[in-house]
Write a structure and sequence with these properties.
Blueprint (H helix, E strand, L loop, with lengths): L2 H26 L5 H20 L4 H21 L4 H8 L2 H13 L5 H18 L7 H24 L9 H14 L9 H29 L1 H8 L1 H14 L5 H23 L1
Length: 273
């Protein structure tokens, strides 16, 4: 197996893990403030990462500010708008990545990627139900999408400048501090279930995910990575059906098909490179 297929496989596994976090976090979020949950998750990630990888550097700190503010705007926006609108607007980061990728990395999308981005957004529309009556919460969520896109591209960019491990702990620490400050007035009573989910997401959806991103995004590029990440809501839907017994509407089923096709395009165009 060559480097590109190893990279695609790991990034796809990250996407599966991120998809799994949606239903398991939905189970425990009624028990805990989202800011407190994020703080606990990233404090656990910080402690573990510090033990294995050291403190990190300024690039990780920059990534942490971007990711921390992204989480904050998404959480704030979700308190104003609906979850379906939040999901669709956040997914706009997929089509914003090529803009940042070209500006920062001078990486131009090819015809497969352009087609994939269009199909992916159409799939996201059907999965979420689209948006109606744009409000301030939607604006905050769009800010989150911009920051997510910038974060993906900068992970690729900075991982070429420094060792991957140096982007971890300082990033996790920054996100932990931002969420701790935002959740300072919330209750910090943490149930065993919430702690278990926070630990799982800290290890797999945070530490492993960032290691995979820093190591493999620079191999396939930010644009291909973005297309692989469109699988996140797809896997979130699958796991929600399995864990939460949710049901698909006809429109959501169409969204699943389109998103799956976009994901196949990402893998296919990697093979062509």
């Amino acid at each position: 197996m060559n480097k590109k297929w190893i990279a695609v496989s790991n990034l796809l596994l990250v996407t599966v893990i991120w998809g799994l976090t949606f239903p398991i976090q939905k189970l425990i979020l009624p028990e805990i403030s989202p800011f407190v949950y994020n703080a606990v998750r990233f404090w656990i990630a910080t402690i573990l990462s510090l033990f294995f990888f050291g403190w990190g550097n300024k690039y990780g700190f920059i990534l942490g500010i971007i990711l921390g503010v992204a989480y904050a705007t998404q959480t704030w926006g979700l308190s104003i708008t609906s979850s379906s609108k939040s999901g669709f607007i956040t997914a706009f980061y997929i089509v914003l990545i090529p803009i940042f990728s070209y500006s920062i990395e001078k990486e131009q999308p090819n015809i497969f990627q352009i087609s994939g981005f269009f199909i992916a957004m159409l799939g996201e529309y059907f999965l979420s139900g689209g948006i109606h009556n744009f409000n301030f919460g939607d604006f905050l969520t769009f800010v989150c999408a911009i920051l997510y896109a910038l974060h993906v591209v900068l992970v690729t960019h900075y991982s070429k400048k420094t060792e991957e491990k140096h982007l971890l702990t300082s990033q996790f620490l920054t996100v932990a501090i931002i969420n701790s400050l935002l959740g300072v007035t919330s209750s910090w009573k943490i149930t065993f279930n919430a702690l278990g989910v926070a630990t799982f997401t800290a290890v797999f959806a945070t530490i492993y995910a960032l290691i995979a991103q820093t190591k493999y995004q620079k191999i396939v590029g930010s644009n291909t990575s973005a297309l692989i990440f469109v699988g996140e809501p797809l896997f979130a839907t699958v796991f929600s059906i399995l864990i939460l017994s949710e049901h698909l509407t006809k429109f959501q089923f169409i969204g699943v098909i389109l998103t799956t096709f976009a994901l196949i395009l990402a893998v296919f165009q990697t093979k062509k490179r």
